């Protein structure tokens, strides 16, 4: 379901605008960079769209809200409101934003 837009590892600077793919259906997951150690993706979600809760058992997730707002579901019913500029980090095995 993701779009692998750039696979080379030589670049260290990326523009979010190159990867944002708006959709009126499900939010779009665009892969910016993928290596043996990590994956960097950009999600675009319209108001009301949700990214399904999920766990990454082998690594952390880091989410940065570029614009707008989001609800960060930390598990156990804990929900934190995020706004543009906020960064949420889910350590190994923790639930992520919705």
Helix content: under 10%
Chain-averaged pLDDT: 81
Tally of separate domains: 2
Order of helices and strands: EEEEEEE
Poorly predicted segments = none
Distance between the termini: 17 Å
Classification by helices and strands: mainly beta
Give the name of the CATH architecture of the largest domain. Answer: Sandwich
Q: Using DSSP, what is the number of strands?
A: 7
The CATH topology of the largest domain is given as Jelly Rolls
Shape: globular
Beta content: 35-45%
Q: Describe the main β-sheet briefly.
A: 3 strands, mixed
The CATH superfamily of the largest domain turns out to be Jelly Rolls
Name of the level-1 CATH class of the largest domain = Mainly Beta
Main sheet strand line-up: 1-2-3
Q: Rg from C-alpha positions?
A: 14 Å
In DSSP terms (H or I, runs of 4 or more residues), the helix count works out at 0
Domain Cupin type-2: 42-90
InterPro entries: Cupin_2 (IPR013096), RmlC-like_jellyroll (IPR014710), RmlC_Cupin_sf (IPR011051)
Protein name: Cupin domain
Molecular structure report:
The chain has 98 residues and is mainly beta. It folds into 2 domains: 1-49, Jelly Rolls (Sandwich); 53-98, Sandwich (Jelly Rolls). It has no helices and 7 strands. The protein has strands at residues 3-4, 28-34, 39-44, 61-64, 69-75, 78-83, 87-90. The strands form 3 sheets. The chain has a 3-stranded mixed beta sheet, with no helix packed on it. A two-stranded antiparallel ribbon has the order 4-7. InterPro entries: Cupin_2, RmlC-like_jellyroll, RmlC_Cupin_sf. Residues 42-90 form the Cupin type-2 domain. This is Cupin domain. It comes from Escherichia coli.
């Amino acid at each position: 379901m993701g779009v692998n837009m750039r696979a080379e590892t030589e670049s260290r600077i990326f523009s979010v605008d190159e990867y944002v793919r708006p959709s009126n259906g499900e939010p779009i997951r665009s892969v910016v960079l993928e290596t043996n150690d990590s994956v960097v993706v950009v999600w675009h979600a319209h108001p009301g769209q949700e990214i399904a809760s999920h766990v990454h058992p082998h690594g952390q997730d880091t989410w940065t809200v570029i614009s707008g707002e989001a609800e960060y579901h930390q598990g156990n019913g804990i929900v934190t409101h995020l706004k543009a500029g906020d960064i949420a980090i889910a350590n190994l095995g923790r639930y992520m934003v919705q």
